Amino acid sequence: MPNSKSDRTLGKSNNKAVSSIESSSIGGSNSTAYNTTVALSIKKVINKIFYNDRDMYVFLSALFVISLAFFMVFIYISFNISRGYTMEHGNNAFMSFIASYDVGIWLLFLAIMFLKWHDNLNVYYFVVIAAVVTAILTYITKEIISLPRPPGALMYETGYGYPSGHSARAVSSIMFLFFAYRENVLFADKQQKKNKVYFTLFFIVAIAFGILISYDRIYLGVHYLFDVIGGHFFGLTCASALYALYMKYEKLMMKILKKMHFPVSERP
Fold it and tell me: Is residue 168 domain-shared with residue 124, that is, in the same domain?
């Protein structure tokens, strides 16, 4: 009979199942909507930082403070706790090659970028100057800290170990490439919007090479792990500080370059 106890029980069970499915569906929709809202909010913040100089200053200031703090933390760890591990016997021709010619490879990245994005010449002067300044600061910092390299490395390297100069150069170069792209976008916005996919692929390749060169320092046994990590934070510290200075004193730099008869780009 349709009004039997078993039928009523079955009906209740079906109602519960339907309610459960509806709740799950609503919960899934809410979760999707929430994720979409978060993604849009993050994208909005990134765009605001990218296109607004004032927000970029705030971002650079925060990045500088955080990077410098972590750099100091790893100095303390390296002196008082551990230097991390290293591979004392890793060696092959490819890894030795990229370690020896990483400067040339980063210059190749810069040259490729210049051929694709050259609306703003000014930022390329900045990149070259900033790269030289970063190298000098890295050398001075190494001499002040004076932490030795790992013993028994198969590839000969001079100087002290902390921070890793190759790692600092890798991170700072990636940041300088990104800043150069940003300046070209701001200089000629309509043309550069079409090249976002191209730059994303270019940037991924640059990051991949930066990771490889960082691993290379441990693989060849010329640095401890914390030398490399410290180098990353030092590179971030230098890049954020130098780009903030460029943003503030670009006009002064252009005046000096003009007097030296260098071609410069005039902002519209």
Answer: yes
